[in-house]
Amino acid sequence: MRHLFFFLIGTFLSLTAFAERRFSENKRIGMPKTTGMYVLQSGYSSNRYALWTEDSVGKQDKEQAAFQLSDIIEPGIKATVLGTGYNFSEGPAVDAVGNVYFSARLDKIQFYAYGRPVELFTDDTFDPVAMMFNRDGKLIVTEGAASRIVEFDVRTKEKRTIVSEFEGLRFNEPEHITIDFENGFYFTDPSYRHRDNNTVRKEDVYYVSKDGEISRVSTVCKKPNGIILTADCKILYIVDNKVGHVYKYDVLAPGKLANETLLIHDARGADGIYLDTEGNLYVGCSGNGLRIYDKAGKFIGRLAAEYGIPYASSCVFGGPDFSILYITARDQFLGISMKVRGILPPSAGNKVP
What we know:
Structural class: mainly beta
Largest sheet: 4 strands, antiparallel
Radius of gyration: 23 Å
Strand content: 35-45%
Shape: globular
């Protein structure tokens, strides 16, 4: 009996010491309070279950990020509502002088010049999603449910179709777009079945050369969405909306990608994406607000309701010095001043490095 008694006492003390070490370690890394809900995180080399909480997403990444949120935006500042009543706003593009165009999913494209009210650019469009200016100053627009990509002359508002099919089959719903120095462009082609538009092909990413040749360049995403090139066109980022991932590629040449890397794995609700001149990534995460990461994929912080941004589908930098972050937020169009500037569009006269 005495041996059994001492054995039990020893076991109890060992377990207590183990628990104290785990508590101390969790406290050191800032482990948050848990909700008791388990979810599968699939962005790791081996699938594993982890406690998922509102605070745990990106917690440790934030501690290691190259920037703090206060380096990017003044604490306590609030976004300004610049326009409202758009049903669902999305896909903003900035021109060479900082004016912004964005889609309203009521078959309209809106125009905003700094300090003036939002006005209608055109209603000669069908289900516009996202857009970007090319080096010639033409506005390239994805028309999702129309399964095509079109080009607008912003002076005459004349429109022409650039691409609508590949290998004899139409696209699903072209979503986001990014343009390189050669005037070629990458675009994502998910399927959301908008307006009863059926899925007709795998949801992938494509490149269209300046001569109109189309190639498939990425197949990793379950539902590719946001896409952006760095200012030097040497790195491409692609958002997977279905699983909240952001992938990074090296661009060897126009339409030639290498070194596919899962950079971000916790951007739930991820939609559009943009960059500032420091290389930080701004990911519109729907009801989770705008999540910001450094170029290494470390979480910096989130702009959400406390900044007057209850929802973020996408964003772009614009204004007189490209330091105003414009956000499409459901039926609203928002603007907020930042301490950093955004990358310029090809139409701003960037030179090939």
